[in-house]
Design goal:
Length: about 350
Amino acid sequence: MNKSKLGDKFFIKSGILLCMLVLYFPLCIGISMLLIQVINKIDPGAFYRYATENKYSEDVFFSIEIDAKTGVGDTITATFEIMEKELPDNAQAIFHELLKDEPLFLSQLEDNKAYMNYLVDSSLTVEELTAYMKSISNLSNEILNGSFYFSAVIILLILYIFLRFRIELYWLAGTLYVFSILDGFTSGIFSSVFYNPMRLASKMMGQVYTLDQYNMYIGFLPKIKEAFLTFIIFDTIGQIYREKWEKRRSERLTEIYYSLGLVLNMMRALKTANRNFPFIKISKVNIDLHYLCKYASKNRKDLALKEVRELTLIFLREIESSSLLVEDVIIFLEKLQTELNESDNFRSNLMYLGSSK
């Protein structure tokens, strides 16, 4: 392969990787929303178990029934009025805002005697309440962390399965692991070295690049690292099955190759023994020509195998429609043997002959 083709291939693969990188964040958001919907569909109690450390599968702090008994919803509304903020329309945002001024919220809550009595009667504590609120307010981030990992796995598998990126992914995985391990051993100093170069590059492009943004990107690394590890696991499993499949293929091709020689010798012997009866016909040969034809069809770039496919298809059509003379069978088998011997692809797949002639 010349340098221009190598260069074109490099730019094509670089472009594909760039496109996948652009798609990564929208995919993360989409998968995050999908995960929430799936969990809600299968088991909404999973959210409450997460927020209560697997103690409860329902909302034991702010359910509609509890609000009806204690008026805790009015307490929350009053707290937002004191903070002079609008009441958000979802629990995560509400809890996030309340926890910003936790002492104020707790003081308002203590004035709600009915709710405090409910906590005591239910063997619940204020500490458990605030821990629950913190967990719920952070729920989207937890789901997003999972989607960062899962999205990376999807992209890596797309690159691996459909676009045939393998060595490239291993290089990326190795580079990422070296970066991550060095950063871990140096307590974050190694990754900090790259902040200023990236900030200057962003400045040259007219963009503002802050340390918080940089730390956010560094925070993606553990998820992406785990995604690469998942890819390596899948690739290892796939390699095991691939080796088994290649072994079975080699066994069948080797059997076909030796069967071809045996049948050809038998046909020649039959012709010699019946030279006075030249019109003896053959209706079947004990060679798996259908498999050989299928194998040749998948390797049409090999000119010899392309010829093997054409010869085999013609022979199969003729012998399946009517018997063939021994002489015609011998001619076909000799041509087939010659073409197979000319195919490096075929011979490299033989178990015992290797690639030598």
